[in-house]
Amino acid sequence: MAKEKNEFWEWTKAFLIAIGLAAIIRYFIIAPIVVDGESMMPTLNDGDWMIVNKLGEPERFDIVVFHAPEHKDYIKRVIGLPGDKVEYKDDKLYINGKYYKEPYLDEYKEQEPGPLTPDFTLQDITGEETVPKGEIFVLGDNRLYSKDSRHIGTIKIDEVVGDTSVVFWPLNKIRLVD
């Protein structure tokens, strides 16, 4: 009888440790998220399941998940970092006066008859000349139909949950995205 109690206790401890580790990993390191909407098409599709990496700071062109003002999580692409001057002119991205290619938009640019991203400067949108310290400027890849920093302003880095680059569901669409 004592051996059965000891074995039961060992299994209980192992189960509790596994649950604790899973909770720590889920809360502090990685978490799943479901893409809701079409603002990141063609890169991400509505209903894609992704893994969010909660470690590290956002970098330019990372796809990040953040808490939006509407008490909802959004998935968008980081365009401007703190101190950056962001401008779109003739459907081209300029950061601090330097032109940046956006290959993830090529598929949509081929389909759209006009500009994918209307002209703007950061100052037009936020009244600030540069992205404020501790904040980022984000855009959805589906520029014509995305609610992003052009509408909700810059995002505090504290509101960023993490970055994401792995689609793991549906199984036939498992892939890395950039």
Automatic annotation (TrEMBL):
Pfam family, one: Peptidase_S26
Active site: S39, K76
Peptidase S26 domain location: 9-169
Membrane topology: Single-pass type II membrane protein
GO molecular function annotation: serine-type endopeptidase activity; signal peptidase activity
Residues annotated as transmembrane: 14-35
One annotated GO biological process: signal peptide processing
Cellular localisation: Cell membrane; Membrane
UniProt entry tagged with the keyword Phosphoprotein: no
GO cellular component, one term: plasma membrane
The enzyme's E.C. designation: 3.4.21.89
Cited PROSITE patterns: SPASE_I_1, SPASE_I_2, SPASE_I_3
Enzyme's top EC category: hydrolase
SUPFAM superfamilies listed in its UniProt record: LexA/Signal peptidase (SSF51306)
Catalytic activity: Cleavage of hydrophobic, N-terminal signal or leader sequences from secreted and periplasmic proteins
UniProt name for this protein: Signal peptidase I
